[in-house]
Amino acid sequence: MWSSHQFSSEQQHGTSSLLLHLLFTILASSFIIFFFKKPSPLNRKLPPSPPKLPIIGNLHQLGSHPHRSLRSIAHTHGPIVLLHLGSNPVLVVSSAELARDIMKTHDLIFADRPTTKIQMMLLYDQKDMAFAPYGEYWRQMKSLCVLHLLSNKRVRSYSKIREEEINLMIDTIKNSSSSSTSVVNLSEVIVKVTNHVVCRIAMGKKYNPVELGGRAFKEIFNDFTYVLGSFDVGDYIPWLGWVNHVTGLYAKAQKVAKELDDFLENVVEEHIASGCYMKEDTNKDFVDVLLWLQKENLTGFPIDRTCIKAITLDIFTGGTDTTYTLMEWVMTELLRHPEIMKRVQNEIRGIAKDKVFISETDLNELQYLKAVIKETSRMHPPIPLLLPRVATKDIKLQGYDIAAGTQVIINAFAIGRDPALWDQAEEFRPDRFLNSSIDFRGHDFELIPFGSGRRICPGIQFAMITDELALANLLFKFDWTLHGVAKREDLDTTESTGIAIHKRNPLLVVATPYI
Length: 515
Known about the structure:
single chain, alpha+beta, 18 helices, 8% strand, globular, disordered N terminus
């Protein structure tokens, strides 16, 4: 499998132990400089804050699953909370109304991203689109992606690739289901098909067998996602930044950045050598499109080699983890709710008739499947805290003073489970989206798994068409039961840690061919 959750429990335990030792060191030294703390500005009304410790502030309250910890803090202190993570003021909002204020009403003020050392190392000095600071470069990159890479026309043009890879996935499952007791690691299957689709669309072929310096690309990418989501104490307590040199985090980041750059450089050179980017062909992969735009100078601004590599990495990263994570949670919830699975299968099989494959033209008829996906994204947003923002000016929010430079975290997980917005918020009920106009494309702030405003994920269509097509055919072609679980309520739903939150343990199932 190709995602960050493949790191061993021993590695995670070692990281946890190191953090505990680090926190002990911080606490032991904190009282030495406690009285040097600067007083808060006068005549300012700040949002409520939970009690904090010297030096580390509220860092100790984040826990291993910050989206859940921050939701609990919001239950106590309200939907707008000011935390202090080390020396950084961080505003956490947990209501649809506040999300609207930040991502729509005051979107321009909150359109910037914080800068971290790890991101600078891994993402070409934040030359990608997702983490780039707000400014002219980011506007140019977003325009390039929206118009030339992720437009509906371009996304639809890759239908053959999606159908080929999903058919291969179906064949793999059939071959693994030779008997009624054959176990399928569905998580692994989903990760594989997602990565193959994105690899072929972004870079022209499946690169998983490629070896660079004795390591496969999938191993390098695993390390990349792990390091990108790692805790960097220097971001919060700058005078402890040296700790990352001792732990080896920065050395690992530099190593991974070099390996990834070597790989992407090789990909670009292969595309230049093939000359395909110069042909009049609408089926160019993303690297071909970027090279063609560079050659023809059609964007109005220069595109250099670094830009091509950064955008390619961005699309590959964004197009894999979030896409497969949502798909995995859909299948998990359907296995926990067999009556809902049966209903969505009846819908799919009802429109299939004599077909052997659900095609992309069939997807508009699958309204209940779409409702299931929306309900899953409500309960399990792939990136539950979205990506952080930064206030570029002093501003008032609901009467509270927010200073320029304050980081902002929007808890999409908490909003999706807000009982003030959702009836029986903790229950999986796809019917709530039937005959409902609520969608996740950034206009309805009670459902924002992809964000909203200027910083909304531009790849929603790219991700959703893959999810819908793969899920439709998985549910059409097979009947599914759990493996090794006596009761559906006992299905393990423990979450992973990191930026994208998937199941910590693989989804093991038994697949029985339907046709």
